[in-house]
From TrEMBL:
Spans traversing the lipid bilayer: none
Domain DAGKc: 177-314
PANTHER family named among the record's database cross-references: DIACYLGLYCEROL KINASE, DIACYLGLYCEROL KINASE EPSILON
Protein name per its UniProtKB record: Diacylglycerol kinase
GO MF terms held by the record: ATP binding; ATP-dependent diacylglycerol kinase activity; metal ion binding
Phorbol-ester/DAG-type domain segment(s): 86-136
EC primary class: transferase
Keyword Kinase attributed: yes
Lineage per the UniProt record: Eukaryota, Metazoa, Spiralia, Lophotrochozoa, Mollusca
Organism (species): Plakobranchus ocellatus
A Pfam family per the record: DAGK_cat
E.C. designation(s): 2.7.1.107
Keywords, in A-Z order: ATP-binding, Kinase, Metal-binding, Nucleotide-binding, Repeat, Transferase, Zinc
Reactions performed catalytically: a 1,2-diacyl-sn-glycerol + ATP = a 1,2-diacyl-sn-glycero-3-phosphate + ADP + H(+)
Gene Ontology CC terms: membrane
Amino acid sequence: MVLLMSLLRKYRLRHYALPVRDSRDGHCFHMVDMFINSTYCNVDGIRLIHGAKCDTCGICVDDTNMKKANSKIPCKAASTKHEHMRHHWVQGNLPPYSDCFVCGEDCGIEKALADLRCSWCKSTVHDSCATKTDICDLGRHKRFIVPPNCIEVKWAGVKGTRHRHMEVKHVVHPKIDRWMPLIVICNRKSGSNEGELLLHSFRDVLNPAQVIDINEIRPESALEWCNLLPDVNFCLLVCGGDGTIGWVLTAIEKLKLKNPPSMCILPLGTGNDLSRVLGWGEGHTGTINVANILSNIKQSQAVHLDRWSVEIRHEKHFGFSRPSKTYIMNNYLSVGVDALVTLNFHRQRESWPALFAHRLINKFCYFTYGTKDVLERECKHLHRRLKVELDGREIELPELEGVVILSIASWGGGCQPWGTGATEEGWVTPK
């Protein structure tokens, strides 16, 4: 009995439930202030200036018609029981210059709610041609998509309560060449509303169960995909800052996955030092083009990343000491003025989260705190209170106010501590 409980405890530490939204509950709408192209309501067909759009299937409705749409128009489901993958047709609002998938003629050119578009493969057809095609091949991004007919779900929670929800129970491998399913983990609070827009954009292209908002679902639950299909090489796209990336990396190590996923980064934070070093850029800006992001993922190459373990031990006072703590370091460890600036920024952001919603504002606040702390010199004479040993030898410290231990060649939002890379006194720029 004790052995059984121990095995069960280990299983729970490594396996987490992967919740799935029930499409029968309605659509996942977000408000649109102004539609750029000619758009018509999928309920009553009227021309829309502003309204609501479903993240998952792409229908557009007037503000007052959202309840009617939930009851009358089915949404793209994360799981189906069909043997073969079928189109999920959405009427009207086709992209400009659309061609019919069946006859090749122009479609979607009428100034009305006309013709159809598949929310999976993005194929467009005339209303009269839709009956001539039924099987969906998931389109040009199929190697990244988990087909809904490959997912089996189950109900979890107490029946009749609001906590009852669906979870992924089983997944089978589809017949797709070079299949590399993509799991998107996004922090919707990162960037200036860019996190929210990325969630909308990826739910439109992928299976909604593949797109995880870590403000609602923990990274450990998102990584349950790797336990459901341990023989599949998953690709993980983390949208956020260095803190979000570290959170996900720690979750991967915690779960001890047999086949850990490859990680890609879409930087939305303020510093993004890890993203800069790994070649994913200094920060995502501009419009969101999912096709370009997926193209960059296809062309990327995997590299190994060193992660350091940092143990903090406290001195004993009167024979007692606080327990030691161990942290994982991805970028760098700071002691002194640099750490003080970061700590002050973090405390201010925790107390006023709405104020720190834009990357430019965050950088300005960093600069403000940095100037203040440098002028006040709260960390002066740090070299008198600090001892640094390297390879068992104590280093003689000059007068300083901060010490930074780096595991990557970028610090403080893109600064290169080694400058242009010139060799000096035997020290060489790391690579």
